Amino acid sequence: MFTLSDQALNADNLKAQVINDRSGGFVSFEGWVRNHNHNKSVQQLDYQAHDKLATKVGNEILDEAREQFAINEAVCSHRVGLLKVGDMAIWVGVSADHREAAFAACQYILNQTKARVPIWKNEHYSDGETGWVEANL
């Protein structure tokens, strides 16, 4: 399931959606707000999304991962709204019978989400400026 959240992401709750007795491997990725980008000091981020379309495309990406990789479960959740340095912006989790599939699917989901899901990032810098940022894969 792909979700957007205006609240802090809870990795334990998200992980609980992915774990099952069939799986021998679990891989997760947490993306956090860092304090810099392109030699500028970042104070916070403002993520904005087209909710309905983002959810549709995000779930399509998860379906693609299920078709391409031998995985059992996959979840991706992305924050929207204002985030401070250190906040978790994205969480991806994948379980599979074997670790190789879990690793590959997790990377695929993360990269495709950054490239295709309509979520926009506006960085707020310590000098008072702001700037929209393209997805970096």
Descriptive keywords:
elongated; 31% helix; five-stranded antiparallel beta sheet; Aldehyde Oxidoreductase, domain 3; 3 helices
Assembly type of the shown chains? single chain
The named CATH superfamily: Molybdopterin biosynthesis MoaE subunit
The value of Rg in angstroms is 15 Å
User: Briefly, what CATH class?
Assistant: Alpha Beta
SS class: alpha+beta
Main sheet properties:
5 strands, antiparallel
| Count, helices | 3
Query: How many distinct folded domains?
Result: 1
Q: In which range does the helix fraction lie? A: 25-40%
* Nearest-integer average pLDDT: 96
CATH architecture: Alpha-Beta Complex
Under CATH, the topology can be stated as Aldehyde Oxidoreductase, domain 3
Shape: elongated
Strand content: 35-45%
Q: What is the count of β-strands? A: 9
Identify low-pLDDT runs: none
Question: Brief description of this entry?
Answer:
With about 140 residues, the protein is an alpha+beta fold. About 30% of the residues lie in helices and about 40% in strands.
Question: Could you walk me through the main structural features you see in this protein, from its secondary elements to its overall organization?
Answer:
Pfam families: MoaE. The chain is of the alpha+beta class. The chain has a single domain, classed as Aldehyde Oxidoreductase, domain 3 (Alpha-Beta Complex). About 30% of the residues lie in helices and about 40% in strands. Strands 3, 4, 6, 8 and 9 form a five-stranded antiparallel β-sheet that branches. A four-stranded mixed β-sheet has the order 1-5-7-2. Strand 3 and strand 4 form a beta hairpin. Helix 2 packs antiparallel against helix 3 (about 100-115). The radius of gyration is 15 Å and the shape is elongated. The mean pLDDT is about 95.
